């Protein structure tokens, strides 16, 4: 009975060791933590900044994480005979992330060679909350005063569900530092730290 337990323990140790060695051969794998920070352009929602955290979770192929980003936008309306006014938007996106990393596929690991140590391409889905605040301002002080006297509220907000997607990649200059880019429902460029 002792021999069977010893064999099982040895096999488990070999499997765990081979998983961790294989994960280190890739830029991103099981147990890897990636923290990214950068600028984003949310199509139609403004320009902003964000941070992102991913953790390699399943067979070097999948990761989960979280991100938080903000976006600012100003829209101007009016002209000719209409009073000019501006709307200032502020948006926050606390989101969860789930990504697929194709270089983690066993069939690709032998074929990618050294590239797998520098490049981490992925496809990510994200879901969470979108928090919006906006404020109106008028070009003409008379219209602003009239709007306030009429009982108008020049600021408002909303909360809704956000769903997003992107194709992204990390390029590592060292095993722990690189650049990060995503293109999808928003474009993100930034730096990333891995551990």
Q: What's a concise summary of this model?
A:
This protein has 195 residues and is an alpha+beta fold. It is 23% helix and 60% strand. A hairpin with a 3-residue loop joins strand 2 (46-58) and strand 3 (62-79).
Observed structural traits:
about 200 residues, 8 strands, alpha+beta, 4 helices
Question: Can you describe what's shown?
Answer:
With 195 residues, this protein is an alpha+beta fold. It has helices spanning 2-25, 106-112, 115-118, 141-149, and strands at residues 33-42, 46-58, 62-79, 82-100, 119-138, 155-174, 177-184, 186-194. It is built from four helices and eight strands, in the order αββββααβαβββ. An eight-stranded antiparallel barrel has the order 1-2-3-4-5-6-7-8. A hairpin with a 3-residue loop joins strand 1 (33-42) and strand 2 (46-58). The longest helix is centred in the N-terminal third of the chain and has 24 residues, at 2-25.
In the CATH hierarchy, what is the class?
A: Mainly Beta
What kind of sheet is the major sheet? 8 strands, antiparallel, barrel
Quickly count the domains: 1
Give the overall shape, derived from the CA principal axes: elongated
Distance between the termini: 40 Å
The total of beta strands comes to 8
CATH architecture: Beta Barrel
Determine Rg (CA atoms, Å). Answer: 24 Å
Low-confidence stretches: 10-24
Tally of DSSP helical segments? 4
Percentage of residues in DSSP E strands:
over 45%
Arithmetic mean pLDDT? 80
Order of helices and strands: HEEEEHHEHEEE
The percent of residues in helical segments reads 10-25%
Structural class: alpha+beta
Per the CATH scheme, the topology name is Porin
Task: Order the strands across the largest sheet as they lie in space.
Answer: 1-2-3-4-5-6-7-8
């Amino acid at each position: 009975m002792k021999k069977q337990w010893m064999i099982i323990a040895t096999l488990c140790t070999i499997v765990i060791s081979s998983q961790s060695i294989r994960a280190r051969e890739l830029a991103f794998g099981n147990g890897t933590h990636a923290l990214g920070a950068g600028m984003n352009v949310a199509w139609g929602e403004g320009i902003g900044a964000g941070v992102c955290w991913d953790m390699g979770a399943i067979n070097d192929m999948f990761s989960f994480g979280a991100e938080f980003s903000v976006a600012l936008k100003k829209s101007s309306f009016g002209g000719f005979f209409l009073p000019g006014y501006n709307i200032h938007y502020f948006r926050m996106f606390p989101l969860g992330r789930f990504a697929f990393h194709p270089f983690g596929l066993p069939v690709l690991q032998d074929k990618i060679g050294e590239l797998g140590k520098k490049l981490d391409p992925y496809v990510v889905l994200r879901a969470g909350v979108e928090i919006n605040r906006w404020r109106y301002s008028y070009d003409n002080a008379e219209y602003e005063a009239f709007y306030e006297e009429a009982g108008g509220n020049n600021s408002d907000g909303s909360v809704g569900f956000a769903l997003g997607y992107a194709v992204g990649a990390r390029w590592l200059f060292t095993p722990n530092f690189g650049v990060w880019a995503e293109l999808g429902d928003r474009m993100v460029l930034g730096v990333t730290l891995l551990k």
